[in-house]
Amino acid sequence: MRINPIILFLFVFSFCGCFDDKGNYNYHEVAEITIENIPEVVEVLGNSDHIVVNPKVISSLEGEIGGDNTNFKFNYKIEKKLGGVLVSGQHWVDLNPSGSLDLDTLAAFAADTYIAWFSVTDKRSGVQTSKTFDIKVSSPTYEGWMVLCDEGENERVRMDMISVISAERVIPAYDLLTSLGLPELKHAKGIGFYPNRFASPADLIYVMSAEGTYKLDRETFKTDESLEIGNIDFILPLVNEHVVCYTSVNNASTAGALASLCVTDAGNAYAQVRDYAGPAFEYPINTSERGKAPEYKVAPYVGVSMARPGNGETALLYDTDNKRFVGWKYGYVADAMQALTPVADPENGLFSFKTGMELVYMESTRYSGGLVYSILQDASGKRCIYGINMSNNGFVQEAKYENLNAPDFDKATIFAFHSQFPYMFYAVGNKVYLHNLGTNTTYPMNTIALGENETVTMLKFNLYRQCSLNDLNNQSDEFMARQYELMVGSYNTASPDNNGGKLGFYPVDGVNNSVTKRAEYSGFAKIKDVVYRERR
Q1: For residue 225, what is the DSSP state?
Q2: 10 Å Cβ neighbour count for 34?
Q3: pTM: predicted TM-score of the whole model, two decimal places
Q4: What's the CA gap between 13 and 5, in Å, rounded?
Q5: Under a CB-based contact definition with an 8 Å cutoff, are residues 509 and 484 in contact?
Q6: Within 10 Å of residue 205's Cβ, how many Cβ atoms?
Q7: Which residue has better confidence, 383 or 335?
Q8: Is 270 in contact with 327 (CB distance < 8 Å)?
Q9: Banded model confidence at residue 131, pLDDT cuts 50, 70, 90
Q10: Cα–Cα dist 251/259, whole Å
């Protein structure tokens, strides 16, 4: 066969050209990257624990790669394992914007199971190697102390929590509700809690503020505008008034409450009777007849017997216009339970229920079967204390304390009464005092040592409300004793951020008129209220 000379020439030329080019190209072997030391699952407590991962990255050419190797880029991202929006409309979130090899970041995510990607990118070749692992975030809201705070100068409402994971693990978690749907609110007022042993209706938890009161999901703490109390517990929409006090009247059994009562910042009171179907609150009850326009305003307090189970079916309120006590009673006539009645004076009583004084404070206790303490102040600024027993469906005058030997008592705005001893605690600035009502003696609580820049923002005893929480339900003596510890909320005004709040727990010595600190937690904003999230 004859070969075309031209074709032969071109073939030889190109073949020689290949020999001439040999050695003009740099051939780099691509390294194989392996990732070790990453667990299959990282289990953390949301908004409390940190997600910590310390991977070991090995190159087949360079050996172990350190975090300071500038030839490599590291990245962590997270998304819901079963899909869905994670936060702010995004399906995934960069866990480590700094790009460091090791990960150490707060688990600021709702309880769920997430999948995370750790990737290593060789900047020179663009080759990326990745490894996945699960992150299981559990809820810090299951059980523990709910800590309602005001944050910053604008007093943004913020819910922190001291989560009780187990008897051995009790840790704080912060700002839980921002990511769970609570609207931007200001000026916290308190936590409303109605525990119920049955699944339906479930426990009710309300966050009360000067700009709205919102119901929280009992399991997840999620909320939104549809759960504002005016949308679910009032037939008539509220106009320029917000619930600032919410409490329940305990049933005589271990079941749910007989009724729940609330007071708004407009001075109106409402009653929800649990035995009757229909919406919770209907018309204001600060009137003499159901359905009438309110006839006077009431103070933001509701006094009830705190006995568990309940031994009283009454509630005590205070008419601020006429300066008198008014009462609510459970009964079998629906109309009668939608009105308040002035409390009648007994013969030879200790005082008149029509006091003519301003109500400074009211607190419900278990002392003497259900004593309600009221602090009143006359026109001259002098204060006294009335004790009204709410057990056995009555309004029984039990105690009257005048001419109190209590320094700075007239200046105090923060109080707490004990349920086992005749003790009143009050605070002025950074000082806490114990006043023994039986001996009319006051003791400075020097064991509650606060700095010069600290001030007391709350005193409280957290009495358990769930009627089935008792020694017969395998609750330890230690757990049951917690409700009689004085809780002291304080705030350091010199704090460089908005987290200068502390919460201390102090068992009370009923023999020596003293307290000792058991535990203290910090990192909160200005504490306004604390309620234990009880579990059945």
Answers
A1: G
A2: 12
A3: 0.80
A4: 12
A5: no
A6: 22
A7: 383
A8: no
A9: very high
A10: 8
pLDDT tens column, 406-449? 999 999 999 999 999 999 999 999 999 999 999 999 999 999 99
Q: What is the mean pLDDT of residues 493-522?
A: 96
Q: Which helix (H) or strand (E) holds 229?
A: helix 229-232
Position 15 scores a pLDDT of 46
CB 344 within 8 A of CB 285: no
Of residues 321, 367, 373, 314, the one with CA closest to residue 343: 314
Distance CA 416, CA 529 (A): 12
Please answer whether residues 91 and 84 qualify as being in contact, where contact means their C-beta atoms are separated by less than 8 angstroms: yes
For residues 236 and 282, give the distance between their C-alpha atoms in angstroms, rounded to a whole number.
7
Q: Are 366 and 467 in contact (CB under 8 A)?
A: no
Element of type H or E holding 122: strand 112-122
Grade residue 11 by pLDDT with cuts at 50, 70 and 90: very low
Name, in order, each residue with C-beta under 8 angstroms of 461's C-beta and a sequence gap of 6 or more: 365, 416, 417, 418, 419, 483, 484, 485, 486, 487
Looking at residue 76, its amino acid is Y
Which among 115, 35, 124, 42 has a CA at the least distance from the CA of 82? Answer: 115
Amino acid letter for position 532: Y
Would you say how long the chain is, in residues? Answer: 536
